[in-house]
Write a structure and sequence with these properties.
Blueprint lengths: L1 E4 L3 H9 L1 H8 L12 E4 L4 E9 L3 E6 L9 E10 L2 E9 L6 H20 L3
Antiparallel strand pairs: 1-6, 2-3, 3-4, 4-5, 5-6
Helix pairs in contact: 1-2
């Protein structure tokens, strides 16, 4: 999935890695430390997992938890590319459980990215 956010890559990166900014765009408590190996929570724990890798202003890699029965980790890679209108946010989400796929795809397109846009694209 690819989305354009009318803000520079460093602002998009900050909105995805700074706990207070995540709380601002989700409207719920968040837990986030941009250090590999730490746990994170968005929307009061509705989305949670482990941070795997950070490349400042360019890339975030996380493992999202879907329950203990999932044999293969669900990995999310978020890449921020400079774009003439701000940032092209590339989202690659692998190994989503079948029963969660539609909910996760709609969540990215209808909730997560629009919430980031509202926060970052204010005039």
């Amino acid at each position: 999935m690819q989305f354009v956010i009318q803000a520079p890559p460093q602002d998009v990166y900050a909105a995805l890695t700074k706990q207070e900014m995540i709380t601002a765009w989700t409207g719920e408590e968040a837990v986030m430390t941009p250090i590999a190996g730490t746990e994170f929570e968005w929307w009061g724990g509705d989305i949670c997992g482990q941070n795997i890798e950070f490349e400042e202003n360019k890339k975030i890699v996380q493992q999202w938890y879907f329950g203990e029965d999932e044999p293969i980790p669900s990995i999310v890679t978020l890449k921020m590319h400079p774009h003439k209108r701000g940032t092209s946010l590339e989202i690659n989400h692998l190994n989503i459980p079948d029963e969660a796929y539609d909910n996760i795809a709609e969540g990215w397109a209808d909730i997560i990215v629009p919430s980031l846009q509202v926060l970052l694209e204010e005039d």
